[in-house]
Amino acid sequence: MSNGQNETGRREMSGAEMVVQALKDNGVKHLFGYPGGAVLPIYDELFQQDDVEHILVRHEQGAGHAAEGYARSTGKAGVVLVTSGPGATNMVTPLQDALSDSIPLVCITGQAPTMLIGTDAFQECDTVGITRPCTKHNWLVKDVNDLARILHEAFHVATTGRPGPVVVDVPKDVQFAKGIYTPPQTAPRTSYQPKVQGDLEKIKAAVALMAEAKKPIIYSGGGVINSGPEASHLLRELVDLTGFPITSTLMGLGAYPASGKNWLGMLGMHGSYESNMAMHDCDVMICIGARFDDRITGRLNAFSPNSKKIHIDIDPSSINKNVRADVPIIGDVGRVLEDMVRLWRATAKTDKKALYPWWEQIAKWRARDSLAFKPNNDVIMPQHAIQRLYELTKHLDTYITTEVGQHQMWAAQHFHFDKPNHWMTSGGLGTMGYGLPAALGVQIAHRDSLVIDIAGDASVQMTMQEMSTAVQYEAPIKIFILNNQYMGMVRQWQQLLHGNRLSHSYTEAMPDFVKLAEAYGGHGIRCEKPGDLDDAIKEMISVKKPVIFDCRVAALANCFPMIPSGKAHNEMLLPDEATDEAVANAIDAKGRELV
Amino acid sequence: MNAQLQPTGSAYFIAKETERPENHTLSVLVDNEPGVLARVIGLFSGRGYNIESLTVSETEHEKHLSRITIVTRGTPHVLEQIKHQLERIVPVHRVVDLTVLAGELGQDRPMERELALVKVAGTGDHRVEALRLAEAFRANVIDANTEHFIFEITGKVSKIEQFIAIMKPLGLVEVCRTGVAAMNRGPQGM
């Protein structure tokens, strides 16, 4: 004990040392952050070690989204370090984004020293108060002897159960104070015990229901990705065993391969016709790790009216929240699927012939070709740009992030994912500006992979400053902007709802994205003609530094198919029916009140 | 088409609520740590739930456990959501809907009691009448001089409401109420 250490790893150190030690003990390799007065002791400790690499962003929001991209693509917690006051408030958007999409984030914030808390000190804010509703849990550490335990607990809470963001607020005097560090322990607090194993009787009931189904559909979501690669593997096995068609939410893309023969495409507001029609007409729906979000269900009282619904979710509050489940199964998707596959093998005989009529019906819907668009030889159609991007990158290990808007939906529709954890997008919160920093985070985790942010010209300007970070850390992210000079989705809704009065959805002054890329020390490419597109994309892939690709696309293209607000799955607006008049009358007075 | 319409009452779609709102009493066992009450209250305000009454105090000192009693109003569907949302809060150990549990135990409703301090000032007939009624309600006088009384009254919410109403014309000055404390009948704990 002469050196202050004993066999159990307990050791005296300063609070700042504890923070860095806890990061190491929890397996953290990368940390995204921005220094400031209230975290300087921790930055001093970071300076004196090499185990944890710190990525210096240009704005705290960028750190948050980068950590989200990092987490989503690795399955590990993303870690952020920011200062008090504005540092913490700038993190609010990524925290809520991570909460909405169940992404594990550990955010450490500096705080004014404990004796100044409550005095309106410089850069003081009520961080735990502000972040309470946008985190899974948060802590204000007032005693350095609690710090190690709380940090380990923070990692445990963020990464287990339904994952989510947590905040640990550490006052500056606690960072300087000396205390006893304790290593991570296996016994978590008694009040937090997520249920991971599903009820076997319920799973049996689900399998029995599935075995009798004539018109079944599997509807999977982000929970499958969050559960880990084994869950995706089991999902594929279940689809192969049962022969059921499968659709997925935006967050769940990649869990079942888009090249798989049972794949119907994404469902929901901008989902494929066949997936939404199949959801509407099915007799048994198996919802796996998804939460019946309003973008998925459309009009709730007309949602899949004749089906029995099986709902697998780790969060009991997701069950019966929007849609009644006939067979609710609470547990981790991976564990439940393991039981389900085993029971199906043991008890159910797949009668694939019984599903023929259902597949025939689906084939008819599929023949409607709902994602079709009119090709154009003079201007680049945005859908075409995504298709070419996919064709030219599918043989590579490609990760895609997006911003939010039309380009996001086109990416989801026309870029096809065969692997989980390769698609990062802001689904629940819909955060414009997510994609660029998220791409940075993905690239930091996967140095040799191709990481592309499919962006819109409006979104990308919200976090453009992180180009500088990408250049600094030689992270060769590709920012593929579908530039139509509009906030395309805003404009589309103005056309649908507000008599085509395009109030402030056109950007009259646009930066020269090529020069902007060069100004940051990156590489700029502009493409205006469909004939030049392939060569330009190949150039983008070959350049070994950050690239901004200004892809000038048809300005007035809209995103179809679409379930207008207040409509049901079987009332989709298809691209070939979307005349100006149909668009203007698609949403009735009641639907106008919805978002 | 759409043969079996089942409105689910989501905030998203303005569907007619077919279920009737009910008052339920919830017992929530939590770690007594800073901010835990704010988490519970924030959940109710953030998700638009109602709080009719709320009481909280540490009930097991050695384990630092507090018991929060919340009377809330909602449809059965919303009440189920409230319970599950409360259970998501990390320092929450258990949530018991005492009203549902009473039903399962074959009882009318949980045992619910409230304490109120009622200050009444006046002289002459009003003063005599106030004291006489207080005795009828089994309220204790805990402070008095020649011009006022403070009554301590314990009982069901309805009894306290009635007592306060009666005291109004007799010189009611102020009222302080604890909110409802509740548990279920029978030998078992929550």
TrEMBL record, chain A:
> What protein name does the entry list?
Acetolactate synthase
Annotated ranges, domain Thiamine pyrophosphate enzyme central:
203-339
| Gene3D superfamilies membership | 3.40.50.970, TPP-binding domain
Source organism (scientific name): Mesorhizobium zhangyense
Catalytic activity line of the entry:
2 pyruvate + H(+) = (2S)-2-acetolactate + CO2
Under SUPFAM superfamilies, the record lists: DHS-like NAD/FAD-binding domain, Thiamin diphosphate-binding fold (THDP-binding)
Q: Which family does it belong to?
A: Belongs to the TPP enzyme family.
Under Enzyme Commission nomenclature, its number is 2.2.1.6
- Record text on cofactor binding: Binds 1 thiamine pyrophosphate per subunit. Binds 1 Mg(2+) ion per subunit.
TrEMBL record, chain B:
The protein's superkingdom reads Bacteria
What EC class does the entry list? transferase
Q: Which reaction does it catalyse?
A: 2 pyruvate + H(+) = (2S)-2-acetolactate + CO2
Q: What is its EC number?
A: 2.2.1.6
State the Gene Ontology BP annotations.
isoleucine biosynthetic process; L-valine biosynthetic process
GO cellular-component terms in the record? cytosol
Occurrences of domain ACT (ranges): 25-100
Mind listing the GO molecular function terms for this protein?
A: acetolactate synthase activity; acetolactate synthase regulator activity
Q: Which UniProt keywords apply?
A: Amino-acid biosynthesis, Branched-chain amino acid biosynthesis, Transferase
**Pathway note:** Amino-acid biosynthesis; L-valine biosynthesis; L-valine from pyruvate: step 1/4; Amino-acid biosynthesis; L-isoleucine biosynthesis; L-isoleucine from 2-oxobutanoate: step 1/4
What family, per the record? Belongs to the acetolactate synthase small subunit family.
Assembly and interaction partners: Dimer of large and small chains.
Described by its record, this protein's role is as follows: Catalyzes the conversion of 2 pyruvate molecules into acetolactate in the first common step of the biosynthetic pathway of the branched-amino acids such as leucine, isoleucine, and valine.
Instruction: State the protein's name.
Output: Acetolactate synthase small subunit
Origin organism is: Mesorhizobium zhangyense
Gene that produces this protein: ilvN
